[in-house]
Amino acid sequence: MKSKEIIIREFTMDDYEKVVAIWEEAGIHYRPNGREQPRTDGKGNKNRASNFLVAAADQRIAGVVLGTHDGRKGWINRLAWQRISAGKTSPLD
Predict the structure, then answer these.
(1) Which of 28, 33, 38, 61 is surrounded by the fewest CB atoms within 10 Å?
(2) pLDDT grade, residue 31 (50/70/90)?
(3) Residue 8 host element (H or E)
(4) Structurally, how many domains does the chain consist of?
């Protein structure tokens, strides 16, 4: 099977439900009523000191990372990827 190209891109609100599902599967605590709450005011979920990225191929999200920094140091706050099922070599197969 031909492997699909994985693209690292910025999170969009269209990704929200898929990202939450990956976090839940990975057992990562998130705040649905806090900083991970979907915004409806058009401002998004970003501030200047954060990077919210997804690994995607086609319409599938395979992984997600939320990182922050203070100008000197950086932190990886939430890093998760989709579980690989038996018989698959990639969550994107």
Answers:
(1) 33
(2) confident
(3) strand 7-10
(4) 1
**Contact partners, residue 11, CB within 8 Å, separation at least 6:** 19, 45, 52, 53, 54, 64
Query: Is 47 part of any domain?
Result: yes
Mean per-residue pLDDT for 66-90?
Answer: 78
DSSP label at 33? Answer: T
Domain that includes residue 74, residue range:
7-81
Q: Does some domain include residue 90?
A: no
| Separation CA 88–CA 16 (nearest Å) | 25
Q: What is the CATH number of the domain that holds 35?
A: 3.40.630.30
